[in-house]
Amino acid sequence: MSTSADDPLSRERSHLASSRAALRAMREDVEALDIKDVTANWVNAEVLAHQIDERIKALADLSDTPLFFGRLDYLHAPGAERSEGAEGERFYIGRRHVHDAVGDPMVIDWRAPVSQPFYRASKKDPQDVGLRRRFGYTGGDLTAYEDEHLSDPAEAARTSKLLQQEIERPRVGPMRDIVATIQPEQDEIVRSGLGGTVCVQGGPGTGKTAVGLHRVAYLLYAHRERLARTGTLVIGPNRSFLHYIEQVLPALGELAVRQATVDDLVGHVEVRGTDDAAAAIVKGDARMAEVLRRALYAHVTLPTEPVVVVRGSRRWRVPSYELTDIVRELLDREIRYGAAREALPQRIAHAVLVQMERSGEAPDDRVQDAVARNTAVKAAVKAIWPAVEPAKLVLRLLTDAEYLAEHAEGVLSEDERKTILWARPVRSVKSAKWSAADAVLIDEATDLIQRTQSLGHVVLDEAQDLSPMQYRAVGRRCTTGSATVLGDLAQGTTPWATRSWAEALSHLGKSDGVVEELTAGFRVPTDVITYASRLLPHIAPDLTPVESVRENPGTFEVRPVSGTADVVQACEELLRNEGSTGLIAADAKIPTLAEALTEAGIGCLSPGEETTAETRLTLVPASLAKGLEYDYVVLDEPQAVIDAEPDERTGLRRLYVTLTRAVSGLIVTHGAPLPEQLTS
């Protein structure tokens, strides 16, 4: 290929080099800022220094990542009047905005409105785009380009080869962004407004996780000031998953998004115990919220004695009936228990001040505050509306059968109450062996007492595995904000897995959320997803099967084996290919497989650890496979994966997850017979 200055590829490489130089200059300008004389005090200086440091990080040039991946040539300048002879305008679309020394854009942020036609325009709807150009890269070097003349009726629509290559590119290391390959149906979700909650049902390989992360990046771009004030949060199922996705947002220039698991959010106590499935189901049921509310407000006692406040030589008496009216009014307002308790002494003090004014005195706010702190008032508040510790409340419910029966009457059956009662008494909150479900109950009780702070936007991934009480815990974090809920009902692998998204959104407190379904599979090869979809009639019969749009069919094999050595051999075969390999098996088989790999001299990683050129095999317990992906996968003993779960339906769902982790090829090894659901 020619490398002359007239060669289009050479010109594009020149623009890339100039853009990288401009980005370096932007970074150097920020690094050179002197803030000594522009801050009033050391606090402001610290804040500004932190902001500058974050800006410097956001302007980092990732040498192995394309600075721009596309180009749009508009027939007319966007926003200008369209007249005959008017000149068009050209924009390079990339991960972040880059401008030259005089402020003219060299690369436009993919989130800008002018970039949207890169994802949405088509031959049927060209959106005033004459040319859409996609770029191919090797590392950070521009190596190819591909043009679509969208407004040319003589050119037929066709599938982009570069787009297919980018989708199918081998992946080593953490999850990468999909900013160059976002499809129109994905882009609609990514760019939906901040005010509404969106729930994305997506089968394996449909890109739902990436769509959710890019939606956060888009919202931070479109609503920067608001979300900087209110905050954003990405919630994943476990630490391995969060480690796997953590580089996506920084690659898009977004550094301020917190990541957590649900367990992190409700970490009021140390979790040292576990529940059996039956107990976890009851504790995770939304009805427990009503049990907790009853138990908490049962602490409120209507007064039977007056409050007598002594100030100097005067005695002021608030009769019990007036106190009762105050208490009932606070209860009727349905404000948080703790907020009502804080308001009660002020209400009593106000009643005293009314009497003072009637007697001719002129008390002010300072007098009211003094009365509210009076010993008699404080004693009355303690008796009427005592302070309650959330963990102690939950502990008493779980250890006192009569107390639980009293507050769960008509809510939980006798068998359900017996299921969640602890067998042995516990001396204190600290000595209790709390389970993950117990921690969620404590979080609910904490919110009943004091309102949980709300964030501007929350992304909840792998949501299908949450219990109703866990949904409520997440919903508390976005009561005044919005959410993006991501999941696949077919991949629900907990006994309390989500039955419907409408129900989930209700528990989240977002009943008006919109449910979108992604059914085009960009990651899983056709033969693999077709094989895995044999399970759908048994685990989620109402879902639309994923249809792979991959041109590369990948490789797929079901292989009988006689022992562990044959499984290791399958791994060795796949490691001859470029990219990452995952060996997935039932959790109980992991130690044996790890030993066999060590004996064969094959190094392996744990889920979430970053693959390297030297170590490209990850040994994955089936329980941690969800959300992860590898170029090639060996899945050992499907029946063992099913048998490891408490019931067959959950086991089949776990198997569905493990079968759909491969991007390019899958070998299923088995010594035992295959599950009948895969052979029928």
Give the termini separation: 53 Å
Helix content: 40-55%
Radius of gyration equals 31 Å
**What strand order characterises the main sheet?**
3-4-2-1-5-6
Number of strands: 21
As for the number of domains, it is: 4
Beta content comes to 15-25%
Q: How would a crystallographer describe the biggest sheet? A: 6 strands, mixed
| Envelope shape | globular
Structural class: alpha/beta
Structure description:
The structure is a single chain. By secondary structure, the protein is α/β, with parallel strands linked by helices. The chain folds into four domains: 8-169, no CATH class; 198-267 and 451-518, P-loop containing nucleotide triphosphate hydrolases (Rossmann fold), CATH 3.40.50; 300-384, no CATH class; 526-678, P-loop containing nucleotide triphosphate hydrolases (Rossmann fold). The chain contains 29 helices and 21 strands. The strands form five sheets. Strands 3-4-2-1-5-6 form a six-stranded mixed β-sheet, sandwiched between helices. A six-stranded parallel β-sheet has the order 9-8-12-13-7-14, sandwiched between helices. The two termini are 53 Å apart. The model has no long low-confidence stretch (mean pLDDT 91). One of its GO terms (cellular component) is cytosol. This is ATP/GTP binding protein. Residues 181-534 form the UvrD-like helicase ATP-binding domain. InterPro entries: DNA_helicase_UvrD/REP, P-loop_NTPase, UvrD-like_ATP-bd.
